[in-house]
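Section 5.1 Outputs to date
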Amino acid sequence: MTAEQLDTELEKGCAQRKAGQTVPAKQASAACCTADGRLTRSFTVERQGLTMTFTTIDLSTWSRKERFEHYSKAVPCTYSMTVKLDITRIKRNGEKLFPFLVYRLTKVVNRHPEFRTAFNANGDLGIYSDMHPCYTVFHKTTETFSNIWTEFSDDYALFLQRYEEDVSKFGNLETFMAKPDLPENNFTVSMIPWVSFDGFNLNTAGFQYLIPIFTFGKYYEKAGQWWIPFAVQVHHAVCDGFHTSRFINELQELINSK
């Protein structure tokens, strides 16, 4: 389908939705618009066996437009929030701590568009359909770290298997990006296991990076309970305190669940 044909399908589909009409399935696949008829474009990319969809945001009709423009142009602003997560259940059950946390963290990321909103390689503002975690491994001899990413799966057993295979294969490589072919729909998570902190903040140059960054610290025991510091770094243009608070609460609920 040509770009002109796609535009025609998009406009036709959105007009039908605004009129309360049902969009045929074939047409709906090309006409990517929201239930209230807002025009969007959706691009599906397949790479290294992974399929990802990036849906652009129509800024003119986006409910968050004023907030986005304020915190990306008038007052460019990122912020961080640091909390202590209760990981008592993980410790008592003898789970492998880091992959357990990364898995549940990714599940919550994939629930909410605020944590999947980004500018793609073409500079388009949009939302990824899903995200994969990119995490760090430390090299004691050189006191440096490398990045590894793992394909996410809702099946924890499968994710854990992929994680262990990736760490086994790439964990000793001391290049910055140890595992190649990093998909663009990734987010960063790391751990600082040498110190337990009450606050942690990252300073990024410019304000075009919208994807959240997560950091865990050194866990500790207090009064029979185990706790771990957890810092969330987000861009205020796409994520408010409500969204970050909901994220943290849902992550704690997942950690507590069986």
